[in-house]
Amino acid sequence: MEIREQLIRINPYSRPGTKIRPTKVIVHYVGNPGSTAQNNRDYFDNLATTHATYVSAHYVVGLQGEVIRCIPEEEISYGASQGNKYGINIEVCHPDKTGKFSAVTEEALAELAADICKRRGFDPGKDVIRHYDVTGKKCPLWYVEHPEAWLTFRERVRALVNPPQPDKLYRVQVGAYRDRKNAEKQVQELKSKGYNPIVKEE
Ligand SMILES: [Zn+2]
User: Fold this and answer.
1) How many A from CA of 160 to the centre of ligand 1?
2) Model confidence over 50-73: pLDDT tens digits?
């Protein structure tokens, strides 16, 4: 996952420059099927001149898994009402109106969310949330209508933040011999005492 930095202009409609101290990652869907990360980033930037509405996000994840940073994480973005004061907003592109993210998009989203959690010490289990969890809006649509897909996604982020440790084994050894016969002798002796030894070659 590579982040392309394309900061939008400072302006009252999408990047007022207000400082925040983020404590959550808030996930959205763009709600505009087929639009690209670049389209959405440029829309936010053009609000500086169109004045059409107040909306933006810190990041947009695109249809090919591309990631654009639009606003620095320590500045407010306009994505989730009251959540803007504490949230890093991530908008995510989707091919159709179901709002389901493609596999490559979801992978990049998981990597981005995990990267933020690692850098900022966030707990993926409670600090990665949906827009829905802030305001009840059906956003991101697929994760609201398929709560199990949301749980799977969060588990994926958690696994990236805390990779499982390889299983360790602790072996008990009573000897090591150059001559196989001596090893067999030791086996017989242990067997006579009720143990169940095996010989392993290295
Ligand atoms: Zn949203």
Assistant:
1) 24
2) 999 999 999 999 999 999 999 999
